[in-house]
């Protein structure tokens, strides 16, 4: 209830700071009997891992997850799954120089205002390192959601944006380090990130996600609509500034006669501006949405800012940082989508007598 | 927990269908001693009311709220506030012809898939008539939030969009029936709605919102970030397809060096691409965000669709409908923002010893 | 979250004060398709109703419930069920004399300490009149729990206690006005209540409850154990001071060799000291428990007490009050049991794929 | 939401099985700035630890807690506190013989019915080993509740019960291994446990608890009454069968004129049958309650039972078990009381502007 849990029946609660002893979490409500493929979990973690390519942060983290409960003889037991990811490469010293400094567009100032106390090392709790727990839990949610296919990909890096006329191939996504389903654009995005990194500057971008084979009936109106909870889950990811599903912001410019999705006799629709959701409930068509990420706040440039006394100070990002978070955030978007869907599936089962 | 509540400490739970006896709700957790200005609540309801102008639905509803508890001698007592809004103008007969029909881009099909049973009259629970309860609760939240100023307005109707170069004046908003802070654009939007209405077609649009005088420290990372809960609240409003705050989707194209908000010595920032929120917590700068609405699904045109047996049928919207929901949704956006802020203020008080 | 809701998936939220306009509630999560027998609900309300016999309060209340939503053509639709019970016989004037007085062992003082503001008429929110909403919701839960049989009865009034050697007959319960399943004891209890009433004094008592035909697997360890949530539900009823299930307090004096319930080959047990619950989960045997009620705090005698300035004052109960709440609390105990079971049944369904 | 969390704002979520890798939990919502006395936490754990005396289980567990987050430079930061207690002395082999056996009055059968899968080693999740997490969290809650004094003690072991005429001295509690505040009775209880242990049998008992210096205003009627949540917390402890507060079950035999607590001019009461709680809210007088524990189900005797095929089998408890859980449950009762109070204190702060 205090901000570190997500989900009602399939629920993740997390703990952990960027440079503390460890991060971890508790997955509650995963039904019993789910076969746990530990290699799959490792693979998911590897997609998010620092140091995976030349365009991401070079922090070296093992990112090995230890499971402490809830799994017995390779299957879930229905009891809570406790897990821990130890921090192994904390260069806390890197952060002594910013102990009292409020970095621009970071959460240093707001955490101080909220809590009074703060673990300043590497952003502490506000660091995106926290998302490692989301990927662990999301991987387990995916193992539960055997029939549903969730595919996220990079559709924008800075000004380079995938448009409707660019062909996409989901098989291409993991073939390039930006995770774009169009090899040509992927290569342009990679070049852009490389060049912006050299300048010590940073980039934002957009991740798109498609969810296929969703059963009908998921979502809990009027407040926990499927897209409302999806949107919240995405907005809770570090650096996210926007969420749109189906026709999204562009849809607001259309006429109803154009936007309405006509039903076919097989209870599918000919178009899918609804994005697979009507009245907050899945209609069986693919769900798709976009998530906007702001450019990374840490720059390898000198910046003027203030310290906690309000005095003007100069600072320069050291540490090891991503010039663009989007490539590593792709598995995080998928993980959050999996958690939301798993929760709605369990909620909907209350109507199965 | 089952979708009809929002908020943790300042919580609204609602009930009611479009053409049932009544709608209503329970507001839990409003602190005691809040002076209830019943005229203000009426005024807020009037801004949402059907029939308020020629460009909205002509359904005639008194929209009178009756309070049954939690208010004593003009002040809240801290106990739950129960309220009811009776339906007075239910023309249920209008809906007999769509009893078994799945209207395109409505929730008829998905409600049937989810629940099996459905009050088909006027959309039942999926109707935006439910938002009358949100406006009642939002008005009470506003009375609690005496120092915070929440201003929503229409910034887009179809292809007509307010841009950065158009001057805006908040005093203008209630002077025109589309609720646009620029009189010139307001008049264009009004014309567009009128002409599209004549064609029996419908429009979408965008509502923008600015929240001023927000205390620092509001928001509960890592999942209940201020913008994540705001986003969810907005996405839970009928017809909403997207949410962005601060620099939003456009921000994803910027460089970090351009996007970072520099601090001044007074702990304010020179720019505000962060939209008043850093790390999910308010920083004291104005919060601002945009909400995208799809075009209304009900058309006064013939449409081909299916019935609940999957048979193709022809249907035509009768009933009384808005050609564009945006003008009436302005107070709803404000209400949801007020509810989210009230909740975060109470949550933050747990740290006040 | 703020004290006026119970249940996770089958959830009741209530509002209302003793002498306000109305009381009511919202039942969320009741599955669709439950046939609503309105006569049954009336009958349940009648069992709790004031004025039903000479040994209960003579306040005259119609106690008619109006349903506003969630029921369509006689069946639930799965959407929230809003309901209201109007107060028709508020003699608020009766309470002017205690406006500033803290009645002994009432909640006047504590409500003032907690909220600062208080509707003093008839105890306001702290009045047991609030339980009318519990009986409405419990009746609907019972209609959902078609196979489960919940039977509560009076097993103690003051010093008169049903013992193991007294024969009991559930058919007898509604044949006498104290609701005791032994006619002989019932008549002694009735006499005791009548005589204590004449003295202007009051009595406590005990209600026992048996739940038969419970499916196995209900309960959510480790915190939401079946008996833990049952206990909480009972302790939330006005005037309750204790809860025990199965062997209860007496069981604490037994040896393990005597207390252990041996399994039979049909997965039943020969004894049932466990009270149908092992490890917080139902085992299919009958659940049984006892609930202790304190003597009513309102006396028709002069009492010395203090007012809100801490000054000593004399007061005398006027109003209309029960000399013993136990007979009218029998349906309330059943209602709370029904709500808890309905919730656990829905929770358990999350494991039914 | 699925049974492994307790509390709304000060919330504990736990994981872990008796013979898994580790147990642990997440404490959410502990305010920042609480100074963590690690020696105090160790001391609390020692009071619960197996092997602490000759009358408790001889399982050897280090019971060392590792904190992974939420504490920085010796103080809480307001972010979630993740902690782990490794299992070091799992003799899982001890349990191979009961893999398919349903031990009488244990949770083997019910866990199988509920979840289908089960970690059978040492009771798995249903083992009281889980309470180690409660003691860790309770210790932190106590460090937060600096002004409130919580004292639990053994008041009954089998048929030996502390009565009102037995003098008690809280300083005596930790001087004897049963934790009884009367040395004479303590010695009798110890003898009883020793002799029953020799017979391979087991005992139940009663723990009483007194909470002093409680602020007024704690508790959230009508469902989350202070005693309702206390009762639930106690009933959630392994082996608990009953809870009563204030005058309890005995109070149900009293007359109102005798039971009412008269106010003094200092807003205290002359008697305290209310147990410090009126209308579900603390009134500033000491809170006191009793908790009944059943005799331990594991006997070192031969017992006939069934296996998961319903076949009759003979079994004999091996493993290492307590003949009576009451002495070790004293710190657990205190821990749960501390968690409940900490939560209500944070909830009440929402009314402090």
Automatic annotation (TrEMBL), chains A, B, C, D:
GO MF terms held by the record: chorismate synthase activity; FMN binding
CDD domains reported for this sequence: Chorismate_synthase
Pathway as given in its UniProt record: Metabolic intermediate biosynthesis; chorismate biosynthesis; chorismate from D-erythrose 4-phosphate and phosphoenolpyruvate: step 7/7
Annotated residues for binding of NADP(+): 48, 54
EC number per UniProt: 4.2.3.5
UniProt cross-references to Pfam families, sorted A to Z: Chorismate_synt (PF01264)
Entry superkingdom: Bacteria
Cofactor(s) listed in the protein's UniProt record: FMNH2
Alphabetical list of InterPro entries matching this protein: Chorismate_synth (IPR000453), Chorismate_synth_AroC_sf (IPR035904), Chorismate_synthase_CS (IPR020541)
Enzyme class, UniProt record, top EC level: lyase
Gene Ontology BP, a term: aromatic amino acid family biosynthetic process
Residues involved in FMN binding: 125-127, 238-239, 279, 294-298, 320
PROSITE patterns: CHORISMATE_SYNTHASE_1, CHORISMATE_SYNTHASE_2, CHORISMATE_SYNTHASE_3
One GO CC term on file: cytosol
Record's keyword terms, sorted: Amino-acid biosynthesis, Aromatic amino acid biosynthesis, FAD, Flavoprotein, FMN, Lyase, NADP
Catalysis performed (reactions): 5-O-(1-carboxyvinyl)-3-phosphoshikimate = chorismate + phosphate
The keyword Membrane belongs to this UniProt entry's keyword annotation: no
The protein's assembly and partners: Homotetramer.
Protein family (similarity comment): Belongs to the chorismate synthase family.
Function, as annotated: This reaction introduces a second double bond into the aromatic ring system.
Protein name according to UniProt: Chorismate synthase
